[in-house]
Amino acid sequence: MKKMVWLAVLKGGLTIAGNALAVAAYLEKHPLVTWVNYPGLASSPEKKRAEKYLAKGAGAILGFGIKGGAEAGKKFINSLEMVSHVANVGDAKSLAIHPATTTHQQLSAEEQLATGVTPDFIRLSIGIENIDDILEDIGQALDKAK
After folding, report:
1. Contact 125, 90 (CB under 8 A)
2. Other residues' Cβ atoms within 10 Å of the Cβ of residue 82
């Protein structure tokens, strides 16, 4: 890979981790969010491990719980305008999914819980878009999920 491409990859990686941390911090303070799971947060029980092993940031993936459970989760996903609703992760663009009503819908409620999927769980894969645009989209979707 040429030097300029590697620089772009490194810069993108830092942008993604920085964006994900900003989203996690925003969600942690939002009144419609009951919990946030992101190892880069100061409140995370995994913070010390993240600092030790993830020198360039805690990555792009985070999860959170939305007040209102599965119904609010569906409304949130359906209200996103910029963030894409897809099952994959690790893209350059921001992605979101509500596992209880998509990837894990074939499981019983008990089986979902056994796999760590709760009705309120939203998974985000944060991309390289402008952080203000990401936060605006997540914020408006949360407002519509009430």
Report:
1. yes
2. 16
Using CA atoms, how far apart are residues 10 and 52, in angstroms rounded to an integer?
18
* pLDDT one-digit tens code per residue, 19-69: 999 999 999 999 999 999 999 999 999 999 999 998 888 999 999 999 999
Distance in angstroms (rounded) separating the CA atoms of residues 111 and 90: 26
Give the other-Cβ count within 10 Å of 88's Cβ.
9
Which of 60-64, 90-94, 108-112, 116-120 is predicted most confidently?
Answer: 60-64
95: nearest Cα among 11, 42, 19, 8 = 19
Which stretch of DSSP H or E encloses residue 18? helix 3-29
- Specify the amino acid at residue 72: A
What percentage of the chain's residues is helix, strand, coil (to nearest 5)? Answer: 45, 15, 40
Instruction: Give the domains, in start order, of the chain with CATH numbers.
Output: 3-144 (3.90.1150.10)
Contact 13, 57 (CB under 8 A): yes
